[in-house]
């Protein structure tokens, strides 16, 4: 078993499933802030401090737009305000999702999805989809850097060049990545129906228990109305 300092994947998945819904239901900024702090602690505890700082900057910018900038009563600016408010609400969910997508190994994800009772087809599709995203963006960066080294300008002001030298190679590479990931998922027994295991699976420990208690108290404070008395 390979141990590392992070939260159990079962806890992370249920956090995003349950609280990703609850934050849309409750209308309390204090709860939003508390949940954001909890998710921030998860990233910091897992050693993702740089990512936490990026999310914090993003969160503060959205907060500033929502609470401190009086936007004109216009459809465009109303849309900007709506997007900013949505990001304030959903930023904690983005944080946990980023950890699941970027830092959880494929074999562990397959194992946990299997334990959650997902069918092999759903398990296979989820694994391919979630792991495709970071690899795809990494390949895009590689293509962009290669074009810069060759001095090829693919900015939006040159759409023909951008399409020929950037978009077409990216699409071809995306197709190849999809095929490679499908083969990789097969080798990791994503379609297997037998009992599976993963050497990367992080077992439930005291930190996970403390996190669950904190989340239960958060829900209880919302349901009991205690948070409004603070």
From TrEMBL:
Where does the UniProt annotation locate this protein?
A: Membrane
Q: Which residues cross the membrane?
A: 7-26, 32-48, 55-72, 206-227
Which keywords does UniProt give here?
Membrane, Transmembrane, Transmembrane helix
Topology in membrane: Multi-pass membrane protein
GO cellular component terms listed in the entry, alphabetical order: plasma membrane
Query: What InterPro entries does its record include?
Result: ABC/ECF_trnsptr_transmembrane
Protein name stated in the entry: Energy-coupling factor transporter transmembrane protein EcfT
